[in-house]
């Protein structure tokens, strides 16, 4: 899959995600985790939770539901 990410990101460890055609690259250590993901088509993830997290959508959209409140 051709990706929008530059070499500095695609040279990171590839993350394994179960969503068909997707690209994911991860940087992590004991004090951080950064994941860069790109999906070729729309996906739906099962409900799950994280500690504090921030995300940036570069293209397209994401619908997040937190405590029953959905936002685009």
State the distance separating the first and last CA atoms: 26 Å
How many strands in all? 5
Summed over residues and divided by their number, the pLDDT gives a mean of 86
As for the number of domains, it is: 1
Largest sheet strand order: 1-2-3
Any idea what the shape is? globular
Instruction: Report the portion of residues in β strands.
Output: 25-35%
- Stretches where pLDDT falls below 50 for ≥5 residues? none
Give the radius of gyration: 13 Å
Count helical runs: 1
The main sheet comes to: 3 strands, antiparallel
The amount of helix comes to under 10%
Going by helix content, strand content and strand pairing, the class is mainly beta
Order of helices and strands: HEEEEE
Keywords, please?
single chain; 72 residues; mainly beta; three-stranded antiparallel β-sheet; two-stranded antiparallel ribbon; 5 strands
């Amino acid at each position: 899959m051709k990706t929008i990410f530059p070499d500095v990101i695609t040279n990171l460890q590839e993350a394994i995600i179960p969503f068909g055609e997707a690209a994911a690259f991860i940087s992590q250590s004991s004090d951080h985790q950064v994941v860069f993901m790109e999906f070729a088509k729309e996906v739906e993830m099962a409900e799950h939770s994280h500690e504090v997290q921030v995300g940036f959508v570069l293209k397209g959209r994401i619908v997040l539901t937190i405590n029953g409140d959905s936002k685009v």
